[in-house]
Amino acid sequence: MLEVEHLEVAYGKIQALWDVSFEVREHEIVALVGANGAGKSTTLKTISGLLRPQGGTMRLGDRRLETLTPPEIVELGVVHVPEGRKLFPDMTVRENLLLGGYARAARPHRERRLAQAYEIFPRLAERADQLAGTLSGGEQQMVAIGRGLMAGPNILMLDEPSLGLAPIMVEEMFRVIEEINQRGVTVLLVEQNTEHALDLAHRGYVLESGHVVLSGTGKELLANSKVREAYLGL
Ligand code: ATP
């Protein structure tokens, strides 16, 4: 479905990704894990068109993504939920969600998808008229993911959805990601919570200093001695 090959990305003179290749197949959850600064967010920003690669290719089916703009990439169903949620704090939950359904292709489906988002996150239905800035961190993360779903993604890219959440909300977040996947959405998940992410993912890739150093099924990576030492502290 999504094929990234030999991706090279730099911020000015500082190269952040080196020859990064990976693929995400339809209906999978794929985890990208690695330490702070390994290049995970850079990878997602490049796929969604926010950064331009210096080299390499990105393909969604038979479409090339490298030269498309972020709105064109969203129209293809590649939707990025950025780290830090980026909500509009002075708008209500409902208004924030509706903003996710503004793309041309998404507009006719807004009411149906809003109902679906409330089904996945019943808490948001209860708080539809509350200002987003007054929600808890976990609730804000739900809005951010719900807003992503409003675009009708084929592939949903989540950047650190569990970051800064209380343990019980972390559990809930991973449960919701699984539910979204079971509803037919392919997921590319960036996480520093390596254990949880690999436990949930069908497959994963480990990034280190901008290089893919390991890949395998979630189970294989969880059993890998290097992953256990470096990322799980075992
Ligand atoms: P984190 O979880 O901390 O965001 P990450 O794996 O997502 O880590 P990136 O944010 O992709 O890592 O960063 C990869 C490298 O690129 C790091 O060395 C970082 O300092 C650098 N970098 C990221 N954003 C910029 C920027 N806007 N300008 C310059 N360098 C940047």
TrEMBL record:
Pfam families the UniProt entry points to: ABC_tran
Source domain of life: Bacteria
InterPro entries: AAA+_ATPase, ABC_branched_ATPase_LivF/BraG, ABC_transporter-like_ATP-bd, ABC_transporter-like_CS, BCAA_Transport_ATP-bd_LivF, P-loop_NTPase
UniProtKB keywords: Amino-acid transport, ATP-binding, Nucleotide-binding, Transport
GO BP term, example: L-amino acid transport
GO molecular function: ATP binding; ATP hydrolysis activity; branched-chain amino acid transmembrane transporter activity
Sequence ranges assigned to domain ABC transporter in this UniProt record: 2-234
Recorded family membership: Belongs to the ABC transporter superfamily.
PANTHER family membership: HIGH-AFFINITY BRANCHED-CHAIN AMINO ACID TRANSPORT ATP-BINDING PROTEIN LIVF (PTHR43820)
Protein name: High-affinity branched-chain amino acid transport ATP-binding protein
